[in-house]
Amino acid sequence: MKRTFISLVLLSGCQWLLAQAPTRKFEPVSFSEVTITDDFWKPTMDKVATTTLQACIYQTEVKTPRIKNFEKVARGKNLPAGQAGEKHEGIFYDDSDVYKALEAIAYSLKNHPDPALEKKADEWIDKVAAAQLPDGYIGTYYSLGRLNERWSDMSMHEDYNGGHLLEAAVAYYNATGKRKLLDVAIRFADYFDSLFGPGKKHWVTGHQELELALVKLFRATGDKKYLEEAHWLLEERGHKYAKGYTWTDWKDTAYAQDVVPVRDQKEITGHAVRAMYMYTGAADVAALTGDEGYMKAMNTVWEDVVYRNMYVTGGIGSSGSNEGFSVDYDLPNEQAYCETCASVGMVFWNQRMNLLTGESKFIDVLEKSLYNGARDGLSLSGDHFFYGNPLASNGRHFRREWFGTACCPANIARLVASLGDYIYGASDKGLWVNLFVGSNTVLKFGKTDVPLTLETRYPWEGNVKLTLSPKTKIKFALHVRIPGWTQGQAAPGDLYAFEGNTNTPFTLSVNGKPASYTMDKGYAVVDREWKKGDVVELNLPMEVTRIVARPELKQDIERVALQRGPLVYCVEGADNNGKAWDLLLPDKAEFKTTFQKDLLEGVVTIQFLAPTIQVGQDGQSVNTETKTITAIPYYSWCNRGQNPMQVWLPKRIKDIKINN
Ligand code: FUB
Ligand code: ZN
Q1: What is the CATH number of the domain that holds 515?
Q2: Residue with CA nearest ligand 1 atom 9
């Protein structure tokens, strides 16, 4: 593995803490060291590189004034004293879209080098740098005519924008080695640190984000003050320090997870994206400081999310009014909010929990959110987006080109482009394979390079082939994740369960012979001496499974969801004569699967026979007919215009709505 300057700094930064703190069980192998070749994800990543990022650039630079605001600030800096500058246009956190797009470009350059895109990013970075004030402040909303009001209202996302700046800067530096944006980020972080911290002013982030970003800056620079600032920000919550017009207006500070200190939190509350970013930051801080309080709190809160508040698609945040959580087991399907960014946040947080604990259940959830709730946010064409991701539709939902608020499009772009971050983990003792994504990388154990190739047709087929090619023989433990859904578990906890027997075993072989392995924390561990050309093959059963929900989940009573591999399925009108709500799923339905290469860019569909109900034109006569129903992967719905759709299919007649 090519060790960069970043990695060396990271190591020296961590060593400061290693001696005194329990740390992660392993580190993720960085996107910058993984080349993705996957049949499923590579085309999506290419689409992000060629289309989604172009949409982000067009919307950010041409269609909306997001970039213009930076230009205005730069122009204003040269005005004679006393002369009024230009006005800010748009929403107060629009700067974050610029940074998220830059971050996505950074990741994308790794798997899809594009000099023109890099040039555009450099141009934007020049504009961002030119908008930084001499004291390090950066934020177009306040810089344009409101500078004396800055830092007066904690809910106004100055910190949130700053956090996205830091994330973009670290990513761009990691991807290109260029440090102009990193220097801007460092100046901003130093400036923030000069105002807020122990013995200085209090600050509660209005939208959590800066916490996790400061940890990234610490990892990139090795400067521990950024880690300490992140820790301090987390500690600020839950003490009624929050101030600001908007903030004090909120009746309920649970919205921003500010009722009790982070370490005392037991339940998931409030705004879903804020929560995900906060727990991601807390997990990052806990990993480096060993803060047991955070680890304990996060385990309890995670169970509250996954056992009582998560959709079968891995989406979270059912309520639109607070863009977040309501009460336990309240998961409406058609009214589901399920913001794309919240699923992106689930991926972030679950990755961190996996690194902290070494337990694969977190990757089970990550995979669920990634392949379903998050992937659904991006159209197959790459230039239309879902903000909310409902699990049923009467046909009113459609994907949009953009949103007024700076939000999901650039977020899903940065997640897809950084997929390389989530596939492998490594420590000096072993290798972890978390996601089955065709790719190659080179790991390093001591002085030995271990080139590694993963080939698969997942999620369409269950065969995964891993070829290891160490230059010299080397012993280490290979941990291959065995998904919970192959072990009879529809999701961690008992919110969802498989109906019927699903126990077809997985198989694991080394060089064509059954592997000798032990199971540990959800991984099959093969600990042996590896030599050049060793081949490990995992075979996962890809049968169609029926999922039922706990009875408390009222909206899903007497309903079944279909899953195959990591993919949740839905019935969409486009495949079923315009109807998706007129059917009953028989208890004994037999499922047939077909890979349809020309449908929805290539998907495995599920077919089954089901009774359907039609109402005559007189509105009084009813006809029933058994039809072949086609179900498609949930993420691929609504790519053929507006259509009715259902994930949870009714088993009993009382539940069907025949008009859709
Ligand atoms: O406030 C910034 C982002 O905009 C939030 O994360 C989203 O929920 C949207 O409101
Ligand atoms: Zn969003």
Answers
A1: 2.60.420
A2: 407
Residues of the chain with pLDDT under 50: 1-21
Residue at 315 is within a domain: yes
Does residue 323 carry a catalytic annotation? yes
Is-catalytic flag, 407? yes
Model pLDDT for residues 43-86, shown as the tens digit of each residue: 999 999 999 999 999 999 999 999 999 999 999 988 887 787 89
The residue whose C-alpha atom lies closest to atom 7 belonging to ligand 1 is 407
Tell me, yes or no, whether 179 and 222 share the same domain.
Answer: yes
Whether 568 and 532 map to the same domain: the answer is no
Polymer length in residues for the chain: 660
pTM more than 0.90: yes
Q: Which amino acid is residue 358, in one-letter code?
A: G
71 and 53, same structural domain? Answer: yes
Give the amino acid at 552: E
pLDDT at residue 659 in the model: 65
Range of the domain at 301: 37-422
Q: Identify the CA nearest to 646 among candidates 629, 634, 658.
A: 634
Alpha carbon of 72 to ligand 2 centroid (Å) = 26
Check 158, 229, 323, 572 and give the catalytic one. 323
Q: Are residues 189 and 211 in the same domain?
A: yes
Residue 151, judged by CB atoms within 10 A of its CB (0-12, 13-18, 19+), counts as middle
Determine contact, residues 30/174, Cβ cutoff 8 Å: yes
Examine the domain organization and report whether 303 and 217 are in the same domain.
Answer: yes
Is residue 158 lining ligand 1, measured as CB closer than 6 Å?
no
